[in-house]
Amino acid sequence: MIKLFNTPNYKIKTKIFTNLLHDEVVNQFEENFAKYVGAKYACMANSASSLIFLALLKYKTTINIPSIIPPVVPNVIVNSGNVINFYDDINWVGSYYKLHDNIYDSAQQVSRNQYRLLNDDNAIMIFSFYPTKPVPSCDGGMVVSNNKDLVDYFKIMTMNGMQYNQDSWKRKQITAGYKMHPNSIQAYIANKNLSNLDEKNERLNEIKDIYNQEFNYTNTSNHLYRIRVSDNNNFIEKMKLKGIQCGIHYGCCHDKLFYTNKKFKLPLSELEEKITVSLPFNETLSRKQVLRVIGNVKKLENI
Which of 22, 56, 111, 256 has its CA 20 to 30 Å from the CA of residue 31? Predict the structure, then answer.
């Protein structure tokens, strides 16, 4: 089977950690990641969803998001006491978008200096280490900023409301926080994959260039390679029979009554969820496999 994503395989001897939850590797990864994206400070958590929840907790307002989006985002908005307004954007998928005020959700993109390019020291950018993301792990998330006070807030709230101190015995309880801290295994795997990200992206750029040329697209994402087909569910089943795994990123959320009782007319999103499909796009694909994907796509869609 030609796989949609690649999840690197690691064997970990847990005895290398002094602490399975708060080993030094967590701090090392925070520093390495902040440096990579061009930020001064970083805080890792058990998931990106936890960080988005904490970022939105104070607002109690209306949050505008695209309808074509992973359901974790509207879930967090509702659960943090906010209201959703959906809009009709189908082009953000595979990159990042502005979630609210100075908060950016970059679960699908990790690139060198991308935070620095925002040119806003008070902005926060949130990343995901879900197994299929650009820097995969067994889940996890990271928030970065040049504003130390903002990052300290996340460090306190993810650590049960304790004032952050590298020495765990010196941490003081100062508020009612949450158990959202990462573990050492998450940080170890993500740190390994971050070190290989440039090499991974180099190969993805090569594959992307071939796809773009063959399909006459101008896709730029290094996370997903999406095309539009006549019927994505039918397409996926037929590609599966050919030994090729494809996916749908993503369906609409604006028609789910548990998110909002407001009716939205979003024709671009409603069409997109029926025709968008993601092709195999990972750094382990050989040229032969890439050409096999292309050949089957052209045959099924009469391109």
Answer: 56
